[in-house]
Amino acid sequence: MLEIVFVSTINGVLFGMLLFLMASGLTVIFSMMGVLNLAHASFYMLGAFFGFEISRHIGFWPALILAPILVALIGMVVERFGLRRVHRYGHVAELLFTFGLTFVIQQVVEMVWGRLPVNYVVPPSLNFSAFTIFSTTYPAFKVFELLTAVAIFVVLLLIIRRTRIGLIVQAALTHPDMVGMLGHNVDRIFMLVFGVGVALAAVAGVIAGPALVTQSNMAGLLGPILFVVVVVGGLGSLSGAFAASLLIGLVQTFAVAFDISLADLFGPLDLDNALGDYLNDIWNVTIAQVAPILPYLLLVLVLIVRPRGLMGMRDT
Amino acid sequence: MTGTSFSLPPPTPGGATSNPVLRYGIWVLVAAGLLLLPQVFSSGLAISTMCLMGTMVIFALSYNMLLGQTGLLSFGHAVFLGLGGFLTAHAMNMGADGLFPLPLMFMPIVGGVTGLAFGILFGAVCTRRAGTAFAMITLGIAELVASSALILRHVFGGEEGISVDRTELPQPLGIVFGPQIEVYYLIAAWCFVSMLAMYAITRTPFGRMCNAVRDNPVRVSFIGYNTTTIRFIAFSLAGLFAGIAGGLTAINFELVNAAQMGAAESGTVILMAYIGGTGFFAGPIIGAVLVTYLQLMLSDITNVWQLYFGLMFIGIVMYAPNGIVGLLAAQRPLLERRCLHRMIPYYVLALVPGLGALAGLSMVIEMTTQLSVSGSEGMSMSLMHIPFEADSVVPWSIAVVLLLAGGYGFLRAAAVTRNAYDTATADRRAG
Amino acid sequence: MTSTSPIAATSTSTPAPAIALQDLEKSFGAIRIICGIDLVIPAGERHAVIGPNGAGKSTLFHLISGHYRPTAGSIRLNGEEIAGMAPEKINRRGLSRSFQITNIFPQLSVWENIRCATLWSMGYRYAFWRNVERLADAREKTERILSEINLLHRWNVPAGELAYAEQRALEIGLAIAGDASVLLLDEPMAGMSHAETERMVGLIRTVSEGRTLLMIEHDMSVIFGLADKISVLVYGELLASDTPENIKSNAAVQQAYLGTEAA
């Protein structure tokens, strides 16, 4: 039991940090530009596929640097020639633009790499077990993932606290209407923020790819959870996104670890009518099976109690 | 044109005419068209395609009650289509067992009531927020319902779904609904009634306030209306009509499964409404017909048809945010000024390089597909019946030249056309 | 809500004042924008609020109309406590307002703009079963208001395409269409030419007939001709509230407001 708790905690924190790597970029982009980038998870997927392709040719370490840079460039092009144009048609058009982008990116990935999972594996230099706890050996690559995510988190924190651009981002987080008054270089700042934001998602893709399955549906699987994170945390709140990332990371990994149903706890349900069949579905489902819907249940519950999310201050 | 007329006819914004003959005449024409279509397109494939289109028209129109009328961007509208379909399927199966004696032709009511009930339930959660948060909550609820469907196997039938036999229901008028043509007329009738109802709703105090909420929600609360209530009613009514579409889908396919309420279906309805044009009542109708047709047609001729869809959608979002009907409506001032003929050369001028760029783009897409995915089948392929090798230099050069030159030419011509359009419409304003 | 405060108590003998503010406060974080305002405006009065930029005039309007929730204090509308109520609830109780920055429905036609603003007060609420074109009373009223604000000839134009002065007139039209007894106008003349301002003064004079008017205005010459009483707001505090003549001769006001303007 203690073993499950310990391993699940590390895994949960790891998943949470990966989520936050993406949610942080998403939140900063939203705060500054007012648009929630629905294609954020698609850039994460691009990161994974670029990581796979580059590590195949010149190795994992160059991929860790090059893939995010490539994705950042693509992101900046998308911002410069797409989003900026659509901006004049309003928020709905901007959202729809990024929504259309998810379609296109997924289709391009399928066109180039196919629909089946690609063989993106843990690099040999990290393919050993870091430590053994109770009877579980914990892979070094996961420790590396966690360290990378934490390192980026710390660097981001320093940038936001200590640099000029960080000050601007902070100002945007607290006073979104003031962003327009930043002056003539606001366009360049937007482009940069969008590029850095999607690059963070790409880093998550590069390091999560080998541990998870690198496949063309990975954006579709992760995207909705990512948006749950930012809404539960409170749109535009960086600390809220952090709390929600960890919360959802932990909830999901713990749920998966518990293979218990109501029937296991209270014994089988003895109902011999049609209604019994329906109730049995609920009675026999294990917590592990419910894991995929927990983030969404959490979303609904949080919104009923706190419509603005855990730490949200803004209405939209 | 109407500026000096002080004996006010009821103004009908959105360009609709106030002439009663035209206003009712259009509906008579629509009804006649629906009746006569199977005479024109009488093949089996055509009739099942039109059945699908009919349900999609209702679905897309119900979606536009949110997006176009009220300014609400939902990413989970297929939930109501799916739930309406499932409950209708269960009701039909009960009907076949004699437990629920509702004739088949009224079965979509079950779907509608289901859609309304879940619209009220989910609307209570979603509509407390607007804008981006609303969009994300609908996404979350859609995922919640879709994932729950795989757990509650007895309700949703697991992976296979729930199948029904529409011919086993009571047949009060002796209509068996076996042949597809009978189903077509059932769908056409429901489609007509739903279209009429949804159009009528746009012309009510509530419908107008929806438009006001879309335009400026803050101001709405200062003229006495609660914006949340307006969103909530709009959401519930949209659920009602989506549920009717779901019920018709169940009758049409005799099968409902969880995929029908998934993210892909919710995405398709956004495409339909937006490509057609959300600012016009007819927009989603055109969009639903066109997208359904393209889905069937493109999936026959290319493996990556969804990529074309995505690109078309992005193109419309970027360059024609009012959709196809918006482009057509933009010709109205030209017609009124009797100078459409002056614009046509410009349109042709823009169209030619545009088509060139499109050809180049689709060559790049198809050759890339051949190189990567279908690579195991060799490099020989053909486009427009012209055979070539996907890994040779010549076709790639042609494609790139077409794409770049056509794209550049199109952008230039578009700018010129835009200017000409502005001049043509400005002329008359001055004169 | 019943209250034991003196203002409510007087309502039994004389009619309650249209608006009564008591110790009204609003802070954003640590910054106090409105620092304890007491003000009573009797029904039928034309009352102007003046003050330098950043004095909190618009914030005061946002508080009274329900756009902002007060940090502390009480707001009574015709004797009833409305502090912290949602804007639509305050509107339904007979208070309506215009905005400093034009706040209309840009895609709707001029006609629809005004008709939407009449619907609630005519009792049509959320009706989705009645044909809006057949509502004769709403139609007549819309027509009347449009001719009052002199926009009848533009009825079919999308509001977003109107000229600036026309949009300002429409803004007033939206405020009066609901038959509110108390009207709040936030700088109705802002950004207008001299001739346009004169027309607007005439319009405000007509529409405020039989209503209580509370307006913010910068142009002193306009106010002295229009208002029965003037309140001077400086840094969130009420410096004075008196007749135009007395305000003109008030030393504190001259120093704080008129003085700065002259300089």
UniProtKB/TrEMBL annotation, chain A:
<keyword id="KW-0472">Membrane</keyword>
<comment type="similarity">
    <text>Belongs to the binding-protein-dependent transport system permease family. LivHM subfamily.</text>
</comment>
<dbReference type="InterPro" id="IPR052157">
    <property type="entry name" value="BCAA_transport_permease"/>
</dbReference>
<feature type="transmembrane region" description="Helical">
    <location>
        <begin position="242"/>
        <end position="262"/>
    </location>
</feature>
<keyword id="KW-1133">Transmembrane helix</keyword>
<feature type="transmembrane region" description="Helical">
    <location>
        <begin position="58"/>
        <end position="78"/>
    </location>
</feature>
<keyword id="KW-0813">Transport</keyword>
<keyword id="KW-0029">Amino-acid transport</keyword>
<feature type="transmembrane region" description="Helical">
    <location>
        <begin position="218"/>
        <end position="235"/>
    </location>
</feature>
<feature type="transmembrane region" description="Helical">
    <location>
        <begin position="12"/>
        <end position="38"/>
    </location>
</feature>
<keyword id="KW-0812">Transmembrane</keyword>
<dbReference type="GO" id="GO:0005886">
    <property type="term" value="C:plasma membrane"/>
</dbReference>
<dbReference type="GO" id="GO:0006865">
    <property type="term" value="P:amino acid transport"/>
</dbReference>
<feature type="transmembrane region" description="Helical">
    <location>
        <begin position="282"/>
        <end position="305"/>
    </location>
</feature>
<dbReference type="Pfam" id="PF02653">
    <property type="entry name" value="BPD_transp_2"/>
</dbReference>
TrEMBL record, chain B:
<feature type="transmembrane region" description="Helical">
    <location>
        <begin position="393"/>
        <end position="411"/>
    </location>
</feature>
<feature type="transmembrane region" description="Helical">
    <location>
        <begin position="183"/>
        <end position="201"/>
    </location>
</feature>
<keyword id="KW-0812">Transmembrane</keyword>
<keyword id="KW-1133">Transmembrane helix</keyword>
<feature type="transmembrane region" description="Helical">
    <location>
        <begin position="72"/>
        <end position="92"/>
    </location>
</feature>
<keyword id="KW-0472">Membrane</keyword>
<dbReference type="Pfam" id="PF02653">
    <property type="entry name" value="BPD_transp_2"/>
</dbReference>
<keyword id="KW-1003">Cell membrane</keyword>
<feature type="transmembrane region" description="Helical">
    <location>
        <begin position="268"/>
        <end position="293"/>
    </location>
</feature>
<dbReference type="InterPro" id="IPR001851">
    <property type="entry name" value="ABC_transp_permease"/>
</dbReference>
<feature type="transmembrane region" description="Helical">
    <location>
        <begin position="104"/>
        <end position="125"/>
    </location>
</feature>
<dbReference type="GO" id="GO:0015658">
    <property type="term" value="F:branched-chain amino acid transmembrane transporter activity"/>
</dbReference>
<feature type="transmembrane region" description="Helical">
    <location>
        <begin position="20"/>
        <end position="37"/>
    </location>
</feature>
<feature type="transmembrane region" description="Helical">
    <location>
        <begin position="232"/>
        <end position="256"/>
    </location>
</feature>
<dbReference type="GO" id="GO:0005886">
    <property type="term" value="C:plasma membrane"/>
</dbReference>
From TrEMBL, chain C:
<dbReference type="GO" id="GO:0005524">
    <property type="term" value="F:ATP binding"/>
</dbReference>
<dbReference type="InterPro" id="IPR027417">
    <property type="entry name" value="P-loop_NTPase"/>
</dbReference>
<dbReference type="InterPro" id="IPR003439">
    <property type="entry name" value="ABC_transporter-like_ATP-bd"/>
</dbReference>
<protein>
    <submittedName>
        <fullName>ABC transporter ATP-binding protein</fullName>
    </submittedName>
</protein>
<keyword id="KW-0813">Transport</keyword>
<keyword id="KW-0547">Nucleotide-binding</keyword>
<feature type="domain" description="ABC transporter">
    <location>
        <begin position="19"/>
        <end position="260"/>
    </location>
</feature>
<keyword id="KW-0067">ATP-binding</keyword>
<dbReference type="InterPro" id="IPR051120">
    <property type="entry name" value="ABC_AA/LPS_Transport"/>
</dbReference>
<dbReference type="Pfam" id="PF00005">
    <property type="entry name" value="ABC_tran"/>
</dbReference>
<dbReference type="GO" id="GO:0016887">
    <property type="term" value="F:ATP hydrolysis activity"/>
</dbReference>
<dbReference type="Pfam" id="PF12399">
    <property type="entry name" value="BCA_ABC_TP_C"/>
</dbReference>
<dbReference type="InterPro" id="IPR032823">
    <property type="entry name" value="BCA_ABC_TP_C"/>
</dbReference>
<dbReference type="InterPro" id="IPR003593">
    <property type="entry name" value="AAA+_ATPase"/>
</dbReference>
<dbReference type="GO" id="GO:0005886">
    <property type="term" value="C:plasma membrane"/>
</dbReference>
